[in-house]
Amino acid sequence: TVTRTRLTSISSDAFYNNTKLQYVNLRDNNLSMLSWRTFQNFNITFPLLLSGNPLDCVCENMWIKLRLQEDIDSPELTCTDERGETRDFATLTPPDCVVPKVELTPKTVTVMEGGDVKAVCSASGSPVPVILWTLDMPSTHYEINPLETKSTLTLSDLSPDDNGRVIVCSAENMVGQTEATLQLNILFPPTIQQLLGPERDHHWCIPFTVTGNPKPELLWYHKNELLQEQDYIRTMIHESTENEDHGCLQLVNPTHIHNGEYKLVAKNEYGQDEKTVTAQFIDPPNISPTDDMDYCK
């Protein structure tokens, strides 16, 4: 709440770090213009109270009309036109003042690792909007070719590390901002990133990390024989992301017969990978020859 302070302006990043605001009350100040950027992270369903300010009937304030169509303060909000006359904000229709529209094609892509993708972002609005890309692509090379009303993004040598990422294209002008998204589905064969020796927690666990898209099928072999999973020996996935599965082969109360070499095979339609690890849970019983003879008797 900032009221009756003769406040005349607010910077565009004033509330940038205030992510939990539930309302903003700026009534009865000297604000004539406000940028939508100041409130771009502010929930549109929360009250933005601006009555009692000498707001100008200009395109820069058009976003306020669009927002306050759903706001409790809109019936009493007014602005002053170029002739000095007071008008209801709901009637504000400045010329050449249109919120941007944006279209991004394609919206989703499915492509093998190492492939290329071209996306085109087209925008309209008045004034002519600026087109911006938001990318978080640590492993894939990209180039942007900007034009006035469209921008082309080219991704080269797609990396599995960028599977599942969402690319955002936004168009913005003084009236507001609109976004469109592109989702990457990058296909690649499995890789067993790690396969560790057994660890004991509540149960015994042979930890592993596996990547692959589509998610690979996991098969275990014990002493080169396919392991039939059941309640006491089974694969457990503890954490799963777009690219990786972290888990373990869980063994409940294993005995010496479970010692030996374990092989993990991960496979999908694009390939497979395998790794082995040796497990020693408990020492086998020490049976002497006389014990054998006594047992036979």
From TrEMBL:
UniProt entry keywords in alphabetical sequence: Disulfide bond, Signal
Pfam families noted in UniProt: I-set, LRR_8
Protein's name in the database: Ig-like domain-containing protein
InterPro entries per UniProt: Cell_Adh-Cytoskel_Orgn, Ig-like_dom, Ig-like_dom_sf, Ig-like_fold, Ig_I-set, Ig_sub, Ig_sub2, Leu-rich_rpt
CDD domains documented for this protein: IgI_TrKABC_d5
Species in which this protein is naturally found: Xenotaenia resolanae
Domain Ig-like: 100-185
